[in-house]
Amino acid sequence: METSASVQGSLSSFNFFNFDFTTPQSTLDADLVRQLSFVPGLKEILMLRQVHALEHATVWVLSETKNAHTPPGRPNTIQLDNELLGGLSTDQGFYLYGEVNISNLRRAVSQALYRLTHGEWDLAVHPRCGTNLSVTMLLTAGLAVGVNLLLPFRPVEQLIGLGLAATTAAEIAPDIGSIAQRYLTTAIPFNLIVENITVTRDVWGRQGHFVKVKWRELNL
Length: 220
What we know:
Blueprint: H1 4-12, H2 28-35, H3 42-66, E1 86-90, E2 93-97, H4 102-117, H5 130-150, H6 155-185, E3 192-201, E4 207-215
Antiparallel strand pairs: 1-2, 2-4, 3-4
Helix pairs in contact: 3-4, 5-6
């Protein structure tokens, strides 16, 4: 049986209040897994967040390759999105859909992982992520309910209110969706290693490439 002193000692190596959550910490997820190993599914959730970031970054890198037309001597600081590419993340890796050469995909995944873990954290956020759609739906529903309760129960006022609610949600959802991606649904993949990339089909029968990853512990 652990005494209170031993419990405090075991937690002393990980203190939530000592972390700067605005800056990705390379050991944060590994510390969480070690200290909270009794929480069912925690490691899978943390892996899914890291895979999600790697999926987004890979799409960005492939989009840069597809749109590599910047004139010589003029650096391109604008992220270009290839809308023909899409992805689906799991805790084992991610599916990538769209026409892409597997050799190019291998290079893109490698570059994406390196760039994410070396400071290019914006690559983890993508405007076409399903998180943004979920945020838009939640905001629209919440604002619609608020308008319904605040305005008179007459058809004209209710229709105007619903229109304002939908417009407001559409305006603010991208920014809130980006925040949700950055701090909730993605994490910098400090603990991921790419095992292999194969041509496969997902559970719905759609053909694509599957990028399989595994968890690694950091030796710091």
